[in-house]
Amino acid sequence: PAALGVPYAGYLLTMPRLVASVAPFLPLAKVPLLFNLVALITHALPAIYLVSARMRRLGPRSVRILLGVLYVGVPSVATVHGNLCNAQWHLAILCFLILVAAPPTSVWAAAFDVIALTLGAWTGPFALFLLPIAVAVAWVRRERWSMVRVGILLVGAAVLPLTLATSARPKSIGGLGASGRGTREHFGLE
Fold first, then answer.
1. In the predicted model, is pLDDT for residue 183 greater than 60?
2. 131 pLDDT exceeds 60?
3. Cα 114 to Cα 105: distance, rounded to the nearest angstrom
């Protein structure tokens, strides 16, 4: 839990760190399974949300099912699937879908939206990009729930400059790219 407020590479890694905070309570052999299951569920959530009744404005259910299948089955992106570090990308797409979805009709749906938007706003830099979309949706719809979404993303976007200013930047061991000099030294040509 202490690491939740520590930025890395410009943003907070809230979701992976929350999952990692559960890991000490599991047998060590089960920790990779936990990480992969959470990553795979996060990957599937946008497709499931797309098929839900809240997205019916987007089009017929058959089209939304096809889009969901295509989203889950995108080829040549194996490094993104089942990887908790990259789950933030799927979380960002889920947050976008929540912004354009119909308002929740149950307490559970509202809680899901708040939790997913909060995780999305605090896990990566996406609150900054999603905030204008949330404002535009709130302007058009003029409903209370849209303002809740704006508020969640506004807090995440406000924190982002602070995390950028105070974050540790990953250091490259081999420099920022290939150079003729490094290659010649490596092969003993100098």
1. no
2. yes
3. 13
